[in-house]
Design brief:
Blueprint (H helix, E strand, L loop, with lengths): L4 H8 L1 H4 L3 H19 L2 E5 L7 E5 L8 E5 L16 H6 L3 E5 L9 H22 L6 E6 L1 H10 L3 H4 L10 E5 L12 H7 L3 H6 L11 E7 L4 H14 L6 E5 L7 H5 L5 H9 L10
Parallel strand pairs: 3-4, 3-5, 5-6, 6-7, 7-8
Antiparallel strand pairs: 1-2, 2-4
């Protein structure tokens, strides 16, 4: 494919593609402020040495039934975990612990460094999470946009190389929402070049679609109204890893790159139900 500057700008600039993006970002902030006030997380727990290597841990009233990890988007260069605190609320209501992860941002660090930071976050949860009240026996990771890329990279991680005592099947399930699985187009994207500093070689090394299929399960979803490239990226990970490893590869009707994430936090939405499914929980039956 010929990734011209005009093409990638049109296909990958999501704020330009969603003209009312300020409304959705404001909605994120409103919902997140309410969630923090209600749930009072253990905030800014440090999992690594970087300035932003912290996470917020939300706990249910009783023993957690599993731990749901969320990785935010922002093209690896923007936004913060606190912008997405609202994602935690419905999962805590289901008796789950939720770890909302921050990571350092480009251009202060590289995309590769961010992957390593997220690996450290998962390792920290395994080693320290139980003492903080999380359930480390079952961890499911979800990410949106750049976070979707990170979720896929974590599913493909060789955990023994991160820490010798980590089991190979540490992560068995992940959800990527509007993820980018082949980073080559971003090497040619004008509005990202200065921050991401991707080269052809680093883009290949950081593209989960070029990895062998991991032993775990990935659910890949995107908004039905997203750009053709984001829809192609969503299909690509199934083509690369196969239907056995990516049994769910679909679009969410009526949603774009920003409002699709609201579906993850909607207890009535299929995207939320898919997350509960991966966590081994029953789907709530609506009251009659």
């Amino acid at each position: 494919m010929d990734f011209t500057a005009d093409f990638v700008e049109r296909e990958y600039n999501n704020r330009a593609a969603v003209p009312d993006h300020p409304r959705w970002l404001a909605r994120y902030a409103e919902l997140s402020a309410a969630a923090v006030a209600q749930l009072r997380p253990q905030a800014d727990l440090r999992y690594g040495p970087g300035p932003k290597e912290t996470l917020d841990l939300y706990l249910p009233p009783g023993p957690p039934r599993g731990t749901f990890v969320f990785l935010h988007g922002g093209y690896w260069r923007a936004l913060d975990k606190r912008d997405f605190s609202y994602v935690a609320a419905p999962f805590v209501a289901q008796g789950l612990a939720v770890a909302n992860v921050n990571y350092d941002l480009c251009p202060d660090v590289t995309v590769g460094a961010i992957v390593t930071e997220c690996e450290r976050a998962i390792a920290w949860l395994v080693h320290e999470g139980a003492a903080r009240g999380a359930a480390v026996e079952r961890i499911v990771v979800a990410g949106h946009s750049a976070g979707g890329h990170l979720a896929a990279m974590l599913l493909a991680c060789d955990w023994a190389k991160v820490c010798a005592d980590l089991p190979a099947d540490l992560l068995r399930c992940a959800i990527a929402i509007s993820g980018v699985f082949d980073l080559e187009p971003l090497v040619h994207t004008p509005f990202l070049l200065g921050d991401l500093r991707l080269t052809a070689e680093s883009a290949r090394r950081l593209s989960p679609a070029l990895y062998p299929p991991p032993p775990g399960t990935l659910y890949a979803l995107a908004g039905a109204n997203e750009s053709e490239e984001f829809l192609r990226q969503n299909r690509l990970i199934r083509e690369a890893w196969g239907a056995l490893r990516v049994p769910v590869c679909e679009t969410v009707p009526g949603t774009n790159h920003l409002d699709v994430l609201i579906e993850l936090a909607d207890p009535q939405a299929r995207l939320h139900h898919l997350a509960l499914e991966l966590l081994g929980l029953e789907i709530p039956v609506p009251a009659a």
